[in-house]
TrEMBL record:
The keyword Ubl conjugation does not apply. Gene3D superfamilies: Aspartate Aminotransferase, domain 1, Type I PLP-dependent aspartate aminotransferase-like (Major domain). InterPro entries: Aminotransferase_I/II_large, Asp_trans, NHTrfase_class1_PyrdxlP-BS, PyrdxlP-dep_Trfase, PyrdxlP-dep_Trfase_major, PyrdxlP-dep_Trfase_small. CDD domains: AAT_like (cd00609). The keyword Metal-binding does not apply. This is Aspartate aminotransferase. Homodimer.
Length: 409
């Protein structure tokens, strides 16, 4: 076994490595389409007006005391009603919730908790998915297996393959990661009828779903629409389940990074929904003892911003307007890129750029295309062909479209 002195140096994180290369590039027309963070029409980070107002309120009457181990109770309540909507009242008694170190921390806490107490043989993750899913579950000691998710030929979800993999390979109590909306990196989500088919297999095979919800409201501007799949699963697996159901429950890893623009403040929550005949209290205490030994208690500042916004009807309206601003700008840029590519006669079909959802577009550009975009045009994106639409604006979309036309023709 390796000791600390002879550990190999792991390759740098690809996305973070690429961002460093971008920063070092002196070219005046360089464009970064790498990072999953919103940028305004001038290419700058944007502080949401609702967040700015909440910060002004907080300045007057906040302190730097520790939160409790499970975080701020008021924040947790508001986070629950945001994700569960009207059903939150009905199932409150069946949820163990803790504030987490953002969405990553929520996924991590879910993995630690489930590895110890559900003891799945495997975790099933979409192919492709957010890179950290694999790392988080590997750290927790649970082997992963990919299920087919995206077809690059049809640029749609590979539903048959996905269902067949779960049907044939998953064992009871295995974990399935589902992204709640705005799938990273493909921008392709399941339709409602497809969610229903997945829910049926999950229910029949007693699989445990971890919903990763990182884009609620950010994806479409519609907070409830973006939570539809989560609420549907809660209804099917918990609320309307037969009383003798042996289904193990599900959980939701909730991030506030994108929908509040609070990336560096690390605001999130994990909600574990247990079957209705069980009490969540044991799970709650176990989540708290894991949190205690990992970081004692979660950060205060970002959660108090979210709590201030969601707790005030006026600031909540402003937040809705902010969500509309972000999601609408992304949709405008999707349309602009598609239109420019078509006007320029770039070979191929570009309609997917407009129809995909959320921050990312899986463009279908190959590694060679991506390398040429970087070397010849100083345009940076992941080798998979994933672009962050947020990096586009009126000032660079034409340049990007022309560069793409050059490399694909
Ligand atoms: N899940 C998915 C699918 C994501 O895209 C992200 C952000 N890139 C996260 C979770 C977690 O982000 P954070 O830790 O900033 O909340």
């Amino acid at each position: 076994t390796k000791q600390y002195l002879d550990l190999p140096v792991a390759p740098a994180d690809l996305a973070f490595g690429l961002m460093a290369e971008f920063d070092a590039d002196p070219h005046p027309s360089k464009v970064s389409l790498i990072a999953g963070a919103y940028r305004d029409e001038n290419g700058l980070p944007w502080i949401l007006p609702s967040v700015n107002e909440a910060k002004a309120c907080l300045e007057k009457n906040s302190n730097h005391e520790y939160l409790g181990i499970a975080g701020s109770p008021e924040f947790i309540k508001l986070a629950q009603s945001l994700i569960f909507g009207e059903t939150s009242e009905t199932i409150k008694e069946h949820i163990a919730s803790i504030q987490t170190v953002s969405g990553t921390g929520a996924n991590h806490m879910a993995a630690l908790f489930l590895a110890k107490h559900l003891r799945p043989q495997r975790v099933f993750i979409p192919s492709p998915t957010w890179v950290n899913h694999q790392s988080i579950w590997t750290m927790a000691g649970v082997p992963h297996e990919e299920y087919p998710y995206y077809s690059s030929e049809t640029r749609t979800v590979k539903l048959e393959g996905m269902l067949a993999a779960l049907e044939q390979k998953a064992q009871p109590n295995d974990v399935v990661i589902l992204q709640a909306c705005a799938h990273n990196p493909t921008g392709v989500d399941l339709f409602k009828s497809q969610w229903a088919e997945v829910a049926r297999v999950i229910k029949r095979k007693n699989l445990f779903v971890v919903f990763d919800s990182a884009y609620q409201g950010f994806a479409t501007g519609d907070v409830d629409g973006d939570a539809w799949a989560v609420r549907y699963f809660v209804e099917q697996l918990i609320l309307t389940a037969e009383s003798d159901s042996t289904h193990p429950g599900l959980c939701i890893a909730q991030s506030f990074s994108k929908n509040f623009g609070l990336y560096g403040e690390r605001v999130g929550a994990l909600h574990l929904v247990v079957p209705r005949h069980l009490s969540p209290q044991g799970a709650q205490s176990e989540l708290m003892s894991i949190a205690r030994s990992e970081y004692s208690n979660p950060p205060r500042f970002g959660a108090s911003i979210v709590q201030t916004v969601l707790g005030s009807p006026r600031l909540r309206d402003q937040w809705q307007a902010d969500l509309n601003t972000m999601s609408a700008r992304i949709m405008v840029m999707r349309r602009a890129l598609r239109q420019r590519l078509e006007e320029l006669g770039a070979p191929g079909n570009w309609s997917h750029i407009e129809s995909q959802i959320g921050m990312f577009s899986y463009t279908g550009l190959t590694r060679e295309h991506v390398q040429r975009l970087r070397n010849e045009f100083h345009i940076y994106l992941l080798l998979s062909g994933r672009v962050s639409i947020c990096g586009l604006n009126e000032g660079n979309v034409d340049y990007v479209a022309r560069a793409i036309r050059e490399v694909v023709r």
